[in-house]
Design goal:
This protein is of the alpha/beta class. 40% of the residues lie in helices and 18% in strands. The protein folds into 4 domains: 93 residues, GTPase HflX, N-terminal domain (Rossmann fold); 56 residues, no CATH class; 172 residues, P-loop containing nucleotide triphosphate hydrolases (Rossmann fold, 3-Layer(aba) Sandwich); 57 residues, Alpha-Beta Plaits, CATH 3.30.70. The strands form 3 sheets. The chain has a 6-stranded mixed beta sheet with strand order 7-8-6-9-10-11, with helices on both faces. α4 packs antiparallel against α5 and α5 packs antiparallel against α6. It is elongated, with a radius of gyration of 27 Å. 36% of the residues are buried.
Length: 463
């Protein structure tokens, strides 16, 4: 065992909740983080071993997930599992130990930060006399609370139903014959498993039809954007990497940005004008996480299509996190599942966020280690302080509109309406007012701006 917290000890500054307190507070919970001693297998295609997270990092992430739905954590523990038990995952001694902790602490929910089979979940609920959620179930609970739009609600409900379909088992108490509702605090469900499965399947089919309507609507909106056309830039990254903070920094929007896992769920799109006038659509997407359930990715495919269809993808990393490399690997794996090659330097920009949390020595060392001659160097930024944001904007604009070029144009008196546009869409170096009333302007502009300038001048000349 790497470490345990006493049942009555506060967790990260949160006061302990003692039994006997009469006021009804948040749901009391125990968090268990099983660490299997066997190394996880690599990808089927590459057979490359996956990066292993530290026990402390896994523990902190599990605690963060539990707190994202306001659970009162009375005890958390990291447990080494040498021989996973098919019936309960944990050994009988550990199960008995946690059963006593649950009883003494009056815990209602036990979080197991590991996938559980339906049989393991049922047996643990019986032995612990508490409701049990595995990692997938906990993520679904968080998503259920975070969904705000109709689309997000539909996607979460579909994922919930697919998850529940294989778990029509007796619940932990005789008062509830069967698991029901979208969440772990939902009421009792139907009594007949066959009836439940039929009802669930009918709901799944209905939700898929509704989501197909959402997908067609998104396709229409996307088609309209392509007619304008504005290039789309999508921000992706591990949850809590700072995507919403960066989105707010680049757009001036007021998207919710908190130090909380999955603070935002529904995608947000905003139009942004880059320094030299290039317009783009910036998209803030749902955060990724390790071991993201396959059916959850499938349910959110309509949302994630914004990433698939994006002209440019910003892979945002929290470079201050000790597990940043493992987090990046998880994001790249999900992107690969979506058909996006994270190694494509023309389409993906790797951005290292939260450099303000690093001292100068660590910052320089990380940037040197991250330099790879085979791909573009990462862009170091702080979405909070604004450091590096101008450089990031310049890189985005170069990718979208081409390199800056030196350009000299002569504006005739009848074309002076274009002067203001030139100042807004280029860097004017000099201006000379000529005797015949014309003006010669030297500026730096992107390739797309140059084409637009030439087109506007021709139109004015013909007019």
């Amino acid at each position: 065992m790497a470490r345990e917290r006493d049942a009555d000890a506060p967790v990260r500054g949160k006061p302990a909740h003692h039994p006997g307190t009469e006021a009804k507070g948040p749901t009391r919970a125990v968090v268990i983080v099983p660490v299997l001693t066997r190394q996880p297998r690599g990808d089927d295609d590459t057979n490359r071993p996956r990066l292993t997270r530290s026990a402390d990092a896994r523990h902190d992430e599990a605690v963060g997930l539990a707190r994202a739905i306001n659970l009162d954590l009375i005890h958390t523990a990291v447990v080494t599992v040498n021989d996973p038990r098919p019936a309960t995952l944990l050994g009988s001694g550990k199960v008995a130990e946690f059963a006593e902790i649950v009883k003494e602490g009056h815990a209602e929910v036990v979080i197991v930060d590991h996938p559980l089979t339906p049989v393991q979940q049922r047996n643990l609920e019986k032995e612990l006399n508490a409701k049990v959620l595995d990692r997938t179930g906990l993520i679904l609970e968080i998503f259920g609370e975070r969904a705000r739009t109709k689309e997000g609600t539909l996607q979460v409900e579909l994922a919930h139903l697919n998850y529940q379909k294989g778990r029509l088992v007796r619940s932990w108490t005789h008062l509830e014959r069967q698991r029901g509702g979208a969440g772990f605090l939902g009421g009792p469900g139907e009594t007949q498993i066959e009836s439940d499965r039929r009802v669930l399947q009918d709901k799944i089919i209905k939700l898929k039809h509704e989501l197909e309507t959402v997908r067609r609507t998104r396709d229409l909106h996307r088609a309209k954007r392509k007619k304008v056309p504005f290039p789309v830039v999508a921000i992706v990254g591990y949850t809590n990497a700072g995507k919403s903070t960066l989105f707010n920094r680049l757009t001036g929007a007021g998207v919710l940005a908190q130090d909380m896992l999955f603070a935002t769920l529904d995608p947000t799109l905003r139009r942004v004008r880059l320094p030299h006038g290039t317009p783009i659509i910036l998209s803030d997407t749902v955060g990724f996480i390790s071991d993201l359930p396959t059916h959850l990715i499938a349910a959110f495919r309509a949302t994630l299509e914004e990433v698939v269809e994006a002209d440019l993808v910003i892979h945002l990393r929290d470079i201050s996190d000790p597990d940043t490399a493992a987090q990046a690997e998880d994001v790249e794996r999900i992107l690969a599942d979506l058909g996006v090659d994270a190694g494509d330097a023309k389409r993906v920009i790797e951005v290292w966020n939260k450099i303000d949390r690093l001292d100068e020595g660590n910052r320089n060392r990380l940037l040197a280690d991250g330099a790879d001659a085979s791909k573009a160097p990462p862009v170091a930024v702080s979405a909070v302080t604004g450091e590096g944001i101008d450089a990031l904007k310049a890189i985005i604009e170069t990718r979208m509109a081409g390199e800056l070029e030196d350009l000299t144009v002569t504006i005739e008196p009848a074309q002076f309406g274009l002067v203001d546009w030139l100042y807004r869409n280029g860097d004017v170096v000099s201006r000379t007012d000529n005797d015949n009333g014309s003006a010669t302007i030297s500026l730096k502009a992107t390739q797309s701006a140059r084409d637009e300038i030439e087109s506007r001048l021709r139109a004015k000349t013909k007019g």
